[in-house]
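Hello support,

Our group uses your service weekly, and this is the first time we've seen a run hang past the timeout. The protein is Endonuclease/exonuclease/phosphatase domain-containing protein. I'm not sure whether the cause is the sequence or the server load. Input pasted verbatim:
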Amino acid sequence: MPHIILGGDFNLPDINWDNTTVNTNPQYGQEINSKLVEIVTENDFIQMVKEPTRGKNILDLILTNNPGLIERTQTQPGMSDHEIVITDINIKAKTYRKKTRNVYINKKADMNSLQNDIDQAFTDHLKNKDNLTNSVEDNWIFFKDTIVNSVNKHVPQKTSVGNKMCPG
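Update from on-call engineer: The timeout came from a worker crash unrelated to the input. Re-ran successfully.
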């Protein structure tokens, strides 16, 4: 089960968070209050805010299925009619390093040499009568290798590392 932390202004003043029950005759109706209590109970959420966030009510909630991640929760005076909930959460984001790859710098390519190399390779290939019986696969491999080798020879490259570029 993933770690879940859900926070926000739920505006349901008639839930008693000490025992996760709904008070008699709730202001916004029994159904919505009971539904939130059901969601909290079925998902093993713990409500972490212990101080009132508006008047005597806890309306702004921090719900989690892993209370060990919550180091501290407190309220501070806010700019509206609600207190601000400040929560210190002990988590570490997963980061992924992009694989390095070569990036061609096309504007610095020696296009004349590139074209001459490819023209010469194809001319030589067609002059050789043995190549007339090559399979489509063999011709494709020759074509692809000629293009790739010529591009690598005449188009400068940089190696990208994540979002940074470094000379290759």
